[in-house]
Amino acid sequence: MRTRKNSTKNAPSRAWEDYLKAIYKLEKPEPTDKGVQTKELAERMSISQASVTNMLKKLADEGYIQYEPYYGVTLNDSGRSIAMKMIRNHRVLESYLVERLGYSWDEVDEEAETLEHFLSDKLVERMWNDLGQPTHDPHGSPIPNIDGTIERKNLTSLAEVKLDTPVMLERIKNRSPEELRYLASIGMHIGAKIVIKNQAPFNGPLLIEVDDQHFHALDYRMALALFVEDNTDSINH
Amino acid sequence: MRTRKNSTKNAPSRAWEDYLKAIYKLEKPEPTDKGVQTKELAERMSISQASVTNMLKKLADEGYIQYEPYYGVTLNDSGRSIAMKMIRNHRVLESYLVERLGYSWDEVDEEAETLEHFLSDKLVERMWNDLGQPTHDPHGSPIPNIDGTIERKNLTSLAEVKLDTPVMLERIKNRSPEELRYLASIGMHIGAKIVIKNQAPFNGPLLIEVDDQHFHALDYRMALALFVEDNTDSINH
DNA sequence: AAATAAAGTTAGTCTTGGCTAAAGTTTTTC
DNA sequence: GAAAAACTTTAGCCAAGACTAACTTTATTT
Ligand SMILES: [Mn+2]
Ligand SMILES: [Mn+2]
Ligand SMILES: [Mn+2]
Ligand SMILES: [Mn+2]
């Protein structure tokens, strides 16, 4: 008689939501055989591995994830839907703070990381409508739809772009506030025209030209977080 | 060696903030000899008396309150300052939701009750500035200043107003969403002109005229939550 | 194929913030 | 002065979500 106290589904707690979101973010876009590792989760969330294992069992019990001990974890539909909701809440709020309350992009993440769990559906929809139902946040990340679907464009990292081929910056993935401020200071905003003029060996810095105006040396690790339109389609087809 | 884990002051938790706010709300405007009762707190917060006693000891340990067993509790400056901050957060957010996101007044309280604990100072100040630094929320309640001071006007409940004396509605104290909607539907908004035409005996309903237009029968208990400018000054002076 | 390293799980503990129930204390009211 | 109400104490319980230490499983080297 495994009657569970929680059988009348309470809303998942903040902790559960953060786990599900972290799993989503660690899942590879191309589905592989192995799921997300306990260790990856522990590291990303700054929580001990033992605590992660513990929580994964609960999440699996409630049907949010597929959990194969020692082999990692994948999201079920119910879990993915919660993850998408958190990401929608997060990105809509961040967009709102930037567009309506004069926040700069590097200030919004901390606020959103907490508030994403406490915003009502109503509030998120009102902010989203007020913003004109945007599909992307100000840093180019897609905002999931209310039904939990999300655009999955194939973007290429700036680190992989050919030399002397102009590209347009489409998305800047999460970096620290300091890095974001730096990137902004060298003109790296969505829509900027970028040309890679050279790449130093051993994954060294890139020499780039921004908006036909300035040259900058861009650290390779930062280039990995900057994304442009993918061109492989036209090549593979 | 009573080294306490918490001696490096962590931010007070949501639970602590809600206690301090509840104590503030139960303190009488005219300072009396006795503080707020355990029982009142227990009732207002829907928490058992034993649990309240327990928490009061912790709050006193940390210096947020003055706690005299059997005699009730009063806020210290540190505790009052947290209470004021919660109320400021709450009222600024409610005002913002109404003014900028099209909420109606009866929708905002639930949202604010949770979010008040998670809004950053920065966000509250930006909303407040965006609204033009209002001193009162849309239902006439004063918004505490950043330094924790608050206007304490002497208002009179509509239940105590003399017959046939026109008064202006200044403040509607917290009621349920249903009651707020009803009050709105009979024209009870801040600034409305009200004349008491009659009061039925035994604390019965008031016959009122609103904005020189309509007559309504107003339940005595609702009249207790509606406030107008105090006139006793001009009488006592 | 064994040894080692890395990843993962188990078991036991802790803190926070709740609860009930029963018994004793203090204050207030009659 | 007695009874009622409010309050505290004690004891024991619970759930969530962390932790550490010890052990197990899987993967990688040699
Ligand atoms: Mn973010
Ligand atoms: Mn979060
Ligand atoms: Mn409110
Ligand atoms: Mn609250």
From TrEMBL, chains A, B:
Q: SMART domains from the entry?
A: FeoA, HTH_DTXR
Coiled coil, from the record: none
Q: Which Pfam families does the entry link to? A: Fe_dep_repr_C (PF02742), Fe_dep_repress (PF01325), FeoA (PF04023)
HTH dtxR-type domain residues: 1-76
> Highest taxon of the source?
Bacteria
Record flagged with keyword DNA-binding: yes
Q: Which InterPro entries match?
A: DtxR_MntR_Metal-Reg, Fe-transptr_FeoA-like, Fe_dep_repressor, Fe_dep_repressor_sf, FeoA_core_dom, HTH_DTXR, Iron_dep_repressor, Transcriptional_repressor_C
Question: Does the record carry Cell wall biogenesis/degradation as a key word?
Answer: no
Where it sits in the cell: the answer is: Cytoplasm
Q: Which UniProt keywords apply?
A: Activator, Cytoplasm, DNA-binding, Iron, Manganese, Repressor, Transcription, Transcription regulation
Q: What is its main location?
A: cytoplasm
Family, per entry = Belongs to the DtxR/MntR family.
Role of this protein = In the presence of manganese, represses expression of mntH and mntS. Up-regulates expression of mntP.
Subunit info here reads:
Homodimer.
| Annotated protein name in UniProt | Transcriptional regulator MntR
